[in-house]
Amino acid sequence: MDTAPDVLAGYRPPSQLVQDKVVDHLDRHCRAFIALSPFATLATAAPDGWPDVSPRGGDPGFARVLDERTLALPDRQGNNRVDSLRNTVGNPRAALLFFVPGFEETLKVFGTTTLVGQADLGVDLTEFGRPPRSVLVLTVERAYFQCGKAVMRSGLWDADRQVERSTFPSLGEVLRDHCGLSTPLPGQEEMRAELAQEL
């Protein structure tokens, strides 16, 4: 049953302002927003079309704007799955969604990528005392600011809506169940302390 055309027909056309807000480079507003952002999500897709989205974060400005059409995204210590990086080798298209704590607007940046070593880039991207393991260089094709409705609805930055960590099992318990392990893994605080040493 293909109801997608009928469902999509129920949406009104986007306004001219919404259509015209897309730019083909990182202007001063985009650059300023990225300089304030400590967190982004990276969207990629494998050559066979399966999508992936991955969190990226660091100090504000961890993603470095090299010029108005070039953005460098350092890759830090992680779980070594490198799904996103493998995807970009086979399918270089990618998108980033930048967040700034306290801001309701977000910034979307789209482009094509090249994976390089920091030495190849000639820019020092050391953070937390470590150089990146690699750098994803995004050649910008489109960028635009997304309105704040989703963040407003979610109350993402509202301290009164933060969830107590104790209301959900520790990551160790989740991994034990998902991996079918019979022995317990470290508790939440112990696991967090271990992760903090690897930033």
TrEMBL record:
Gene3D superfamilies for the chain: Electron Transport, Fmn-binding Protein, Chain A
Record-annotated Pyridoxamine 5'-phosphate oxidase N-terminal domain positions: 27-147
One of the Pfam families matching this protein, by short name: PNPOx_N
Protein name listed in UniProt: Pyridoxamine 5'-phosphate oxidase N-terminal domain-containing protein
